[in-house]
Amino acid sequence: MRDLVVVGASFGGWIAAEIATKTRERLSRLVLIGAVGAKFGAREKSDIVDIFATPRSRWEELSFRDPAVWLRDYESLPEEELTAMARNREATALFAWNPYMYNPKLRGRLHRIRIPTLFLWGANDGFAPIAYGKDYCAAIPGAKFEEIADSGHFPHMEQPEAVARHVIGFAGDRPRRRGDTR
Amino acid sequence: MRIYHFSEQPCPDAWAPEHKSLRVILPSRNCDPRVMAENYHHRLDEWMLADELGLDIMINEHHATATCCCPVAAVPLAILARQTKRARLLTLGYPIANRLDPVRVAEEFAMIDVISRGRLEMGLVRGVPYEVPLSVRSAVGQMDRFWEAHDLIIKAMTSIDGAFDWQGEHFQYRNVNVWPRVYQQPHPPVWITGRSPHNIREIAERGYVLGTFLSGFQTKDLFDHYRKACADLGRPAPAPDRFSYLGIVAIAEDRKEALRRAEVMVGYLRSSGRVAEPFGTPPGYFSVKDAARMIKARGKRTTTTREGKAVDTHHGAIEDLVKAGIMSVGTPDDVHQQLAEFVDNVGGLGNFLMMGHAGHMTHEEAVDQITLVAKEVLPRLQKPRAASKQAA
């Protein structure tokens, strides 16, 4: 695998950013959608809303511009799906309980990312605020920032077409390597 | 039979009905340190009286709450280690899976054991769910961490030939070398709280004292898990001193006054259960199956056994709480009878942990309760039981 365009959203964006600070051998482009993982704000306050201190009834409200669309009938969800949700929540705690949603070393390493990087951020993100996204973008040399209208923390779910358009446009204008015949 | 006097050392003036959560997020602005100083002094005086009258002493700890204003059990334990003469000093207990530093725990315990000349009873607990949001460590893998911390504490206390290294999964140290050497050899007695059959088996295998809190007449099942584990291992049936139970006592010379005291104590129970919803269900604390069920209920209180029990404990009427074995209320005769019935029901109990002070109860009332229990209830419970009653 070569010339990969890596796209990561939220926690996945954190992982993608970590990879890109370590190597660009196989990467050509990086797209970070509502990414977490670095710390920019004051020590006394979490940059990202603490999901573990948020009442269960407010999860959708934090995550989506229009929570009503995404509010599911949890009563009738199949057991496997509820189990997967519970396991995901455990995994989130395992990786991001403390420090909450960041690696203290990542911010200082972001300057090492030397591939074209695009940030996509839901204009109505109630979980990772847009100002946080802009700080993140400013820490990566040459990175671009695009707001996705009518979207919360998961633009790829709420506005999949707009996100796809941005990703394809960004990936499409990558420079070909010499000898690349594709 | 031993009776341990216990108070959560609350700060009852700090709560008002408008506070949605008395735990985790309640601002300490609500705590008047001058009032709290009085409270601490009164509670310590009550424990010293318990020591004089032949009762034992139990301390616990919680964090960031007005319901139990003792975040460092080592502090009252240290004071009482010096100020009391004979009582056993039980902490039930230290939440060792939430602690970052088990070696420090071993050092605190060792000093308290030596200062008290060997009176420490070393209680270790997993801790309630709403302690997890206050911890640096999440609840994922909490029991694994609990047992590793336990192993390290015991090894640190029993290693007397110099330093050792610890390279575990959860804790790593170089040059562990605890001073002073513990007074009780090889180490102070260990107590652990348990509810699940699996956990109780782990406690039984090690021969530790099982701690149970407010589980009422369901306590017999918990003790039976312990007994079964011993039988499976081919060991003799465990003695009553391997079991402990925490219940609430409201006692007075006349029933009317006892009922009034019960109301004071229950009012406290009803408010102490107020915890903002997300803090009661930290990820990793419950099994995946239970966690999935809680997601389904979207944070509403569910009707599971565990949750159901909590509701009963915090909202039940006094009469029901007495029937359930959670409270003992009445004259010394009444309380003796209720406790004796409870002891029979669970098949023997060596340690009754008495919440003898709670909430707005005054110092004078607590003194009266401790005196009545020590003089009129404990001696009768310690007498050999009539065999006919067991058979009946």
Q: Would you mind describing this structure in some detail?
A:
The complex is a heterodimer of chains A (182) and B (392). By secondary structure, chain A is of the alpha/beta class. Chain A is built from 8 helices and 4 strands, in the order βαβααααβαβαα. Chain A has helices at residues 11-22, 59-63, 67-70, 79-96, 106-109, 130-138, 155-158, 160-172, and strands at residues 4-9, 27-33, 117-122, 144-148. Chain A has a 4-stranded parallel β-sheet, with helices on both faces. In chain A, α1 (11-22) links the parallel β1 (4-9) and β2. Chain A is globular, with a radius of gyration of 17 Å. The mean pLDDT of chain A is 93. Chain B has helices spanning 33-53, 74-83, 102-115, 142-158, 197-205, 219-232, 255-272, 288-296, 305-315, 318-323, 332-346, 363-382, 387-391; strands at 2-6, 56-59, 89-95, 120-125, 164-167, 172-176, 190-193, 209-213, 243-251, 327-330, 351-355. Residues 301-311 and 387-392 of chain B have low confidence and may be disordered. Chain B is globular, with a radius of gyration of 20 Å. In chain B, 43% of the residues lie in helices and 15% in strands. By secondary structure, chain B is of the alpha/beta class.
Fold blueprint:
The complex is a heterodimer of chains A (about 180) and B (about 400).
Chain A: E1 4-9, H1 11-22, E2 27-33, H2 59-63, H3 67-70, H4 79-96, H5 106-109, E3 117-122, H6 130-138, E4 144-148, H7 155-158, H8 160-172
Parallel strand pairs in A: 1-2, 2-3, 3-4
Chain B: E1 2-6, H1 33-53, E2 56-59, H2 74-83, E3 89-95, H3 102-115, E4 120-125, H4 142-158, E5 164-167, E6 172-176, E7 190-193, H5 197-205, E8 209-213, H6 219-232, E9 243-251, H7 255-272, H8 288-296, H9 305-315, H10 318-323, E10 327-330, H11 332-346, E11 351-355, H12 363-382, H13 387-391
Parallel strand pairs in B: 1-2, 1-11, 2-3, 3-4, 4-7, 7-8, 8-9, 9-10, 9-11
Antiparallel strand pairs in B: 5-6
